[in-house]
Design goal:
Two copies of one chain form a homodimer.
Chain A (H helix, E strand, L loop, with lengths): L5 H21 L6 H8 L3 H7 L3 H25 L8 H13 L6 H17 L4 H21 L6 H18 L7 H12 L4
Helix pairs in contact in A: 1-2, 1-4, 2-3, 4-7, 5-9, 7-8, 8-9
Chain A binds a DNA duplex (30 and 30 nucleotides) through helix 1 and helix 3.
Chain lengths: 194, 194
DNA sequence: ACAAATCTGGTACGTTAGTGCCAGATTTGG
DNA sequence: CCAAATCTGGCACTAACGTACCAGATTTGT
């Protein structure tokens, strides 16, 4: 169901943002009617009034979060200074786009990105959305490589992304996972001039 | 709790195998007391009698399944004929070890392997077990490359595994996911003589 | 053979979940 | 300004879950 009144639209949006927050904090499974309502400060029934099902709510939350991340990526592209694209800084930029900006608790944030990827396998209704966002991310990276004076083919972009993703999922089983460090190592090696 | 009588041990084992079957068919979340008991043809309470908690049962199921897969890998190594390790056949062998033997419904089986990887992030108690199995798999691949007359460094093994894993997780968001094909493409390219 | 240990299986409790219901309040459009 | 559309929010239903309980059956060790 979609809102028809301004206030309704605001409430609906509040629910989406609350759901996106839960997604970031606790993963897909944390998005539940009661949790979303409580976080948004709204009654339980508002979640079923504005969303036909929980899947709808999950979809809206993922779209909201995905768009926010893509906007972040575009901002990084716009402010990119081709002169300061030294090896390490550039690797870090690519990691920021693929894993999110570095933070002190980024293992958690990175885990979430990959839960999303894998969860798509069990939630086919998310595939079209994930497809679109993944495509935009690929294009963004393609543009960034070009802008940084290191143009690569779209195929190569896919390879590098796969390398990072694989490094991350393998790092998740470490006792003290540091997926970003693992990805940094592999990406740095793969991008070295040969 | 561990069984102390032969019959008890048999029942316990039946529960583990039932749980492993559920793991294969429906993922971690499919392992539930009632489902396991029903699949094993045993009463609900037997699951709490032989396993202190559901986590214990999940751990046992993962270990059972992991050992079965490692045994399969070792068998493939033992029967490996160095003379018939042409490019395509060898790539397929590596895929068999990393993704499981090829089947008509292997997108499902592959998905499960990667759910395991990612789920470890939210289930720290599985990490030691996953660590051990991952290590054995790496060693197995290392041996297989050597046996096939294409020795590589352990570091290179990690790279190739990451490449396959990354290709897989990215393939999962396709409309009709074929993770094996995606992995085959990337691995084939990475292993081409340069 | 018999006491102790182990196992059995039906039952029930407490939570949490998704979702449906509906009388009343609010907002909208003409 | 008022009828119609929209929204509100408290409540309750059903289902599924992990887990605990316990009287009785079975198996074990001596």
């Amino acid at each position: 169901m979609t809102a028809a009144t301004p206030k309704g639209e605001r409430r609906r949006q509040a629910l989406v943002e609350a759901a996106a927050g839960l997604l970031v904090d606790g993963g897909f499974d944390a998005i539940r009617h009661r949790a979303v309502a409580e976080r948004a400060g709204l009654p339980l029934a508002s979640t079923t009034y504005y969303f036909d099902s929980l899947d709808d709510l999950v979809t809206a939350a993922l779209e909201f979060q995905g768009n926010a991340e893509l906007a972040y990526g575009k901002a990084r592209l716009d402010e990119l200074d081709p002169r300061e694209c030294g090896g390490d800084a550039f690797v870090e930029l690519v990691l920021d786009l693929l894993l999110g900006p570095s933070g002190d608790r980024d293992a958690e944030a990175v885990l979430l990105r990959y839960e999303r990827l894998v969860a798509t396998g069990r939630r086919p209704y998310l595939r079209p959305l994930m497809r679109r966002m993944s495509g935009e991310l690929h294009s963004l990276l393609f543009d960034i490589f070009a802008r940084a004076g290191q143009p690569v083919s779209r195929e190569r972009v896919e390879e590098l992304i796969a390398l990072v993703d694989g490094a991350v999922v393998n790092a998740l089983i470490e006792i003290s996972p540091d997926p970003r460090a693992a990805a940094r190592r592999m990406l740095g090696k793969a991008m070295q001039p040969r």
